[in-house]
Design brief:
Oligomer: single chain
CATH topology: Trypsin Inhibitor V, Chain A
Distance between the termini: 12 Å
Strand content: 25-35%
Largest sheet: 3 strands, mixed
CATH superfamily: Trypsin Inhibitor V, subunit A
Order of helices and strands: HEEE
Helix content: 10-25%
CATH architecture: 2-Layer Sandwich
Number of helices: 1
Shape: globular
CATH class: Alpha Beta
Strand order of the largest sheet: 1-2-3
Structural class: alpha+beta
Length: about 70
């Protein structure tokens, strides 16, 4: 199991603000905001639905974030 998110920005960070950013920029910004894990996925990737506190998921297409969500 992943560690719990520390007190800080990640719990208050809004995932929608990452949509439209270049994947590298979004990942860097997320880490600066305190996310323990930043996961890049293809928009149509098959994934399990378990929630992991402190993880930010980035759906990336052609190098740009097209969807973003917590857990």
């Amino acid at each position: 199991m992943a560690p719990e998110s520390p007190e800080g920005q990640s719990e208050q960070d809004e995932p929608a603000r990452y949509v439209g950013l270049a994947a590298d920029d979004a990942e860097q910004r997320a880490r600066e905001q305190g996310w323990h894990t930043v996961r890049r996925l293809a928009p149509d990737a098959v994934i399990t639905m378990e929630y992991v506190a402190g993880r930010l998921n980035l759906a990336v297409d052609a190098g740009e974030v097209v969807r973003c969500w917590k857990g």
